[in-house]
Structures are given as C-alpha cells and as structure tokens.
Amino acid sequence: MPLKVATWNLENSNKLVSDIPPPDVLNRRQRIRNTIESINPDIICIQEGPKGETAIDAFCAQVLNQQWVPILLRQNGEALGIRDKEYQIAGDQWIWFLVKASLEKKCRLQSPQVWQNFTGMKTWKVNFWGNVKPSRHSHYRHPQVLIYDLDNGQRIEIIGAHLKSKFNKNPIKRDKDNNLIGDYLNDAISSRIKMATEARNVRQYVAAKFDQVEHPGIMVMGDCNDGPGQDYFEERYLFFDLIDNLQGSVLISEQFFNHALFDFPDDLCWTVKFDDELANPPGLQSILLDHILISQPLCRGELPLVVKEHAGKIEHETYEEFNAGSNSKTRTSDHCPVSCKLDDV
After folding, report:
1. 20 to 30 A from 286, CA-CA: which of 155, 262, 279, 325?
2. Which tens digits make up the pLDDT trace of 82-96?
3. What's the domain range around 312?
4. Looking at the 3D structure of the chain, how many domains does it have?
5. Strand ranges (DSSP E) for 26-154?
C-alpha cells in the first residue's frame, strides 16, 4: 500500500492548544486542519509542535479531530507527560510525528537513548574558529525517530529534525571595507558550526544503521534552518553546505541520500520567504529550509515501498489556498509543507 509522508514547521503551534480559544486561534486551527486534510499524508512530522505529550495530544483532538494521532514514548496505562524528559527536547518547539489513526499500530517512536547508544555520544566537542580548547555542543531539539513496520518484517525509519536556529539578535556591523565584524559575525559563524555538527551527528546515526542492516530504509525530514544568510557565510567563512553534510558523501555511495526535491521545478523550490540583509541585493528571499532526504535502498526498490521520480512536492498550491484572506495571527505557518510519496514496488 502506498505511503505519503510530509514535513511541516507549524510556527509556534503551542499557541493553538486552548480549551477556550479566541477567534483568531479557531480561524488558524481550521486553516491548518484544511491544509493537512488536503495534503492527506499518512505520516506527518511537525516542527515547532506543542511542548510535551499532554499538549500534542490536545492538539490532535482540538485541531485535527483525532484524524491524525501522535506517536509517543508513553507506554500503555501511563499518564500523559510522565516521559516528557525522555524526548530530550528543550524549549517550546518540539518535534512530533502524527499518523493516521488507522496506521497507529504500525508505528512506534524510538527513544533518543538508542540514538545516543548508536552514535556513542550525547554531547560532542566543537572547536569554534579554530580554538585550541574545545567547547561542547548537543542537540537543543534532539532528533526523533519514527519506526514504521512494513508487512514483510522490514521497516522504514524516519528521522525528524529541527536543527539549531540561526536567528541572530545582534545588529549587523561592518568595517570601513564593508566586512562583517563584531558580535553579529561571531554569533552567525558559531551557529552555523553548531548546525554543521548536528548534521554530522545525524550522519553518524545513519552510518551506524548501515553497519546493522544490509539495506536500511531511512528518511530524514524537517527544518534544517539553513537560511537566511544562506550561502554568504558558507562561501566566505565555512566552505561547506549544510545539506551536503546531511546527504553524505558520494564517495560512500551506498550511504548517500537522494533529495526528494531534486527533480522539483527550481523556481518553486523554496518553503520560506525571509528578509535577508546579507543577500545581493538585500530584501525578500525565497529559501528552501524544509527537506526530505531518502536512503538509496528506498530509491532502488529493495524494500516493499519505493520513491520514484517526481515523488517529492512542496505544497505551494494547498498552502496558498488555505491561507487566502489570513493575517499574521491566522496564517497557518511561515513555512510551506513538503511531501513525498512512496509507491508499491
């Protein structure tokens, strides 16, 4: 049976959970429900989801009428929220997998402890700007792993990620030669280095899976936060690209991941619009922040499901349709959803 997956950053969806919602929240809830119903994913990974099990359970009831349900670490008979610390997510923006109620029994969430056992670390050393003495970094929002059991005993692992934000509160300062200087530059570079190491940690988990399974079916999806300022710092300071870090090296071709949007039209290949003062010329930029990456076995047909050509899609039409007439309080999100269809072999 074909499977449709999607990823969507829902922009502070904590605000949607309320027993007595104001009119703006009711309006936004309806737009989100209409959008997800129209896309009709079997599995959707949301970022900036509500904080904690109790809140995501309420979200699914209040916003989605329980057509999609959350896959939790909670065990049978346990109270909601008793395992919240086990997700290892800080802050109010959580990563959740929601699945159609009919698929709930085929899905389970893997403990982040398993991830850390496979990678051999919870935190890792980082030498910022070539510092001799390393600092330590870890995932602020630990990746979550959904396991989807296939009928033949194989499985697909979906890694939901929301990498470190590059939001920078420091004012942009330049020297007489127009070079960036000061706290803005230091913060921007440090954030990108942290993001790069988070991507490397994801790849360490992927490498561990290839040491365990002959043909693992793995997908990585979510908000990678690779903008604004996209390419400016990569070209002048870091000399790498974040998505390349996530996709892996073509020199280890078996572990290289395809991008679901590699054959999507270039002029539509964006999910967010940001004002970017570092762009040339400065101004509103269309940026691809939300990604779905796919392991080779899922592209070659070595599992019962396969990702064929043109399977990936940015849901621009649906996003615009259900945001028509919205404002900053009722808009579904500042991100467009991304989807990918897996067909029967």
Report:
1. 325
2. 999 999 999 999 999
3. 3-344
4. 1
5. 43-49, 68-70, 94-100, 107-110, 124-126, 135-137, 144-149
